[in-house]
Write a structure and sequence with these properties.
homodimer; 349 residues; alpha+beta; Arc Repressor Mutant, subunit A; Beta-Lactamase; Enolase-like, domain 1; 3 domains; 5-stranded antiparallel β-sheet; 10 strands; DNA-binding
Chain lengths: 349, 349
DNA sequence: TTTAGCACTCTTTTTCCCGGAGTGCTAAGC
DNA sequence: GCTTAGCACTCCGGGAAAAAGAGTGCTAAA
């Protein structure tokens, strides 16, 4: 059943009013918003209909109306006006993005911080690998007889390195050969295969050098595991305390500890919609049943995308959040595009 | 004026009782704790004295007593018994520390997480450099004509690396020479000097290679700056919500956002006391005037120390926190000691 | 279909009162 | 002189009752 134009108008007013004040809206307040085109009795009739249709709810008999999840959904899908950012806002975003660029991980989590402080809600970020990463290249740098630096470049162009100590000395002259060995046998494959290869080498390579290879392969395995693990970072969790829906300390605590200790279960969007909004009970996770999440994704190089999610009460200011978040996502895509448009490529499998 | 033995005993009971229950202690409850050696009237007299001396306070005329900051201070300095950890506790700490070891930064911030969940209060961590770091070694690894990997090893044995793109191509054969140049002129010195040297090279080295050097030196500069910046990590901030003193959401919010947005102003201990306790108003920072901080430091390699601070209400369980924290600090020192002394050995067990 | 009017419901705020907890003081006891 | 019993007093916290508000739903008329 299609709603009349007027019902939609009223619904919109209720949603936006409730978003702004966190107070249920009564018929009188609505009439005011409509600049008196209509009487409060009429509005009451409309409200009764909207309530019956499931778009509005009444906290108790003699209170005003608040939106139901369905009401928010309708609002988000049809009624919400795409806000444009003011020049000051875009300016501010651009400024905050323009700082020194660091490693990919760090940038991703910093982006989360920026978004959080800019939208005024907690956020979380994930780096999502479309396909499993592999090692593209190894390099061993001798420090002295008993230590060396392992450098590992992954297929997503990340480079990691670590200083490693050795139980048994290995002459630095050996290192180029060992690097070569690693590069010919251990690139482009997964952790499991790396381990198999390693086993098969155990009788071809002598003890101390085998130990060295073992260390490096293990290290690479950890790095690959880390990229799979899709580490989630959360930012600004304390911002929820600003909202009256979390004045109840226990609720606040539940949500916050969920965001911190259970990060992995924060929603990630399926498919590749640029932006997704999950309202209250649409969230699978119990801890989020009374909260909403807005998730945007942006591109990071070849086969990765970044996700940034905004968490807030169902009464979240969807229009503003969506506008800011999507601008942010676009800017981040552009930025990573520029950063990563190095010449990748070499051997492919 | 020196307190009598009995006054101290009573003060101790009040402090510990209040720490345990967050309720003011009355004379009757105290008598009970003293197993009736003394009447409640006597206790009341003693309480009146202790209040007059400034060690106790009364929330209102007909409530029991709670410790004043001075009372806590006396308790911490003289009355508190050094708790020993139970075997289960040491076991648990050892277990949580025994995981895979990663880079120094990551370990430090992970240590903070562990401490936080183990003591049940929020924590923060800092890596404190006793003297400025320098670059110990550079290494350049060619990827193709237009990109290369810069590896930088710092004087504190950290190794960092990054993939870099070039505006102008540089033949890979050039890289060893450039590395050598870097290693001879840019190691062991500060950022300022590096820049001076770089300038003086500008007419000896041609354009594309100069650009490359410039990039690497800039990168090294950032790394050095980062070690100076003493980045602060906070963990488990939401734990404060468990405590009744922060049931007031605004107070909780103040403290949490301070810990998150103002990390840099969290106290770091002066001198090199192994552990320091700051009680309520002893904290310089307004946001911490009603909270206490326990800070421990531990050694990380050559010229660095790590700090881990525990933040809680003034009613914090000092004895337990101090015991756990100092055990943690010792274990961390030992662990970093082992990790950083390059030729380790596995033995004992 | 819209509107004015009104009784009704439910929440919130205020007020008042009472019981409990704990104190400080006084005067007597050791 | 220290300790103790006794007691009046203060203050907080909780609960009941009352008052104030806010907003509704319904009816009947425009």
């Amino acid at each position: 059943m299609e709603l009349t134009r007027r019902k939609k108008e009223i619904l919109k007013i209720v949603v936006e009013g409730y978003i702004a004040t966190a107070e249920p809206m009564g018929s009188k307040a609505i009439v005011e918003k409509m600049s008196g085109k209509i009487s409060s009795a009429t509005v009451r009739n409309e409200l009764a209909d909207l309530t019956e249709l499931g778009y509005l709810e009444q906290p108790h008999t003699s209170a005003g109306r608040i939106p139901s999840p369905a009401g928010y959904r309708l609002y988000v899908n049809e009624l919400m006006e795409k806000k444009a950012l003011s020049p000051e806002e875009t300016e501010e975003i651009n400024r905050s993005l323009s700082g020194k660029m660091a490693g990919t991980d760090e940038m991703i989590s910093r982006a989360g911080q920026m978004v959080s402080s800019f939208v005024g809600y907690p956020t979380y970020t994930v780096a999502d690998h479309k396909s499993a990463a592999t090692v593209r290249r190894f390099e061993l740098i001798g420090v002295d007889e008993r230590s060396f630096i392992a450098v590992v470049m992954l297929s997503d162009s990340q480079v990691k390195s670590q200083l490693m100590a050795l139980e048994l000395p290995v002459a630095p002259e050996q290192l180029p050969r060992l690097s070569h060995l690693l590069n010919t046998h251990f690139t482009g494959i997964g952790t499991a295969e790396m381990n198999t290869h390693l086993m098969s080498l155990s009788d071809q390579v002598d003890g101390s050098r085998f130990l060295l290879l073992n260390r490096v392969v293990e290290y690479a395995g950890e790095l690959l595991a880390k990229t799979e693990r899709q580490e989630v970072f959360t930012n600004g969790a304390s911002q929820i305390l600003k909202f009256p829906e979390y004045r109840d300390v226990d609720k606040a605590h539940d949500l916050m500890s969920f965001m911190v200790d259970n990060k992995e279960n924060l929603p990630v969007p399926m498919g590749d919609t640029p932006m997704q909004i999950l309202i209250g009970p649409e969230n699978v996770n119990d801890a989020l049943k009374e909260s909403s999440v807005v998730i945007a994704s942006y591109d990071i190089g070849d086969n990765m995308r970044g996700l940034v999610g905004v968490v807030g009460p169902t009464r979240m200011d969807y229009a503003t959040v969506a506008a800011r978040l999507s601008y942010f996502a676009e800017s981040l895509s552009a930025m990573f595009g520029k950063k990563n448009q190095l010449p990748p490529k070499e051997e492919e499998e």
